[in-house]
Amino acid sequence: MSQDALVFYSRVDNAQAWQAALAAELPDLDVRIDPAVGDPADIRYALAWAPPAGFFARFPNLELVINLGAGVDALMKRDDLVPVRFARLNDPGMEAMMASYVVFAVTRYARDIHIFERAKRRGEWEYVHPRPLFEIKVGVLGLGELGAAAAKALANMGFSVTGWSRSPKDIPGVTARTGREGLERLLGESEIVVCLVPLTPQTHHLLGERELALMPPGAKLVNVSRGALVDEAALVEALRSGQLAEATLDVFETEPLPEGHPLWALDNVLITPHVASITVPALAARDVAESIRRVRRGLAPLHEVDPRRGY
Ligand code: NDP
């Protein structure tokens, strides 16, 4: 038995698929699937999604925790974290899937498909003259690994794209903004806003009544990051009043979205069940293996998370 083992914990991911993918990338890695962890002192790495309270403290030699997903908000708000390095998953497959969802949602509005869907249900031929894509201003909140991939895909298609992040960015074809003023400018000029910032104490209810009111009347919102970035009560109100004409929502403050929630009844909302992007073990295992190789050499893992900033 090695003393350089990884513990895998998830009740939703396929442990065997991960074990096979990791074996292909890093054959010398001893992968142990919880609860069959053997001697806890052997464990140096954890690849985990939503483990029970006290999980990390069980392993005295733990060095690295890799969150089994891109969003680390649930991990970062735990009160049982131990002082080790934290990383998260990201891979080209996840970026491509997220970009495909965002391109679909934005294009559906830009090409008036939502109007034709309703017209078809009424049995009516409703002609709406198409608009060139460069006339359509799209704002992307968050220009990280997923936000930048989505913003680039939209820019490549010909949309006018503005993005917003904490630090300045230089992305070809994308106007980059930062700070509160940058956020307000982006909201004021974007016909379609895509939300791809992580949920942190700073971004909780980033879009409330005031921010939604800054958007041009009849604007559209696409939220693919985390539900609590948007004040859901204010969102429902904006969708009822017409301040927001449409929303495509993949994430919600409570998931699954509870039966009877007002969003279910709104005809101008497209709801998908948190499926915008997923991790494919065969692709993501490459980065997990590389992170472990790096940590073995005393280097930082890929996609490292900074617990102080929360993402
Ligand atoms: P990253 O950490 O790579 O990027 C986050 C981006 O948000 C960065 O550009 C960052 O700025 C910006 N940001 C963070 N905090 C602030 C702030 N306070 N003000 C302004 N900008 C801020 O994350 P990813 O792109 O990989 O993922 C984004 C989110 O997508 C995840 O956190 C997760 O919640 C969600 N997700 C949803 C999925 C789904 O299926 N619906 C699947 C996967 C992820 P800077 O660049 O300056 O650091």
Automatic annotation (TrEMBL):
What are the protein's GO molecular function terms?
A: NAD binding; oxidoreductase activity
Which segments constitute the D-isomer specific 2-hydroxyacid dehydrogenase NAD-binding domain?
106-276
Keyword set includes NAD? yes
Keywords recorded for this protein, A-Z: NAD, Oxidoreductase
* Superkingdom assignment: Bacteria
The record, for InterPro entries, names: D-isomer_DH_NAD-bd, NAD(P)-bd_dom_sf
Q: What is this protein called?
A: Glyoxylate/hydroxypyruvate reductase A
Phylogenetic placement of the source organism? Bacteria, Pseudomonadati, Pseudomonadota, Alphaproteobacteria, Hyphomicrobiales
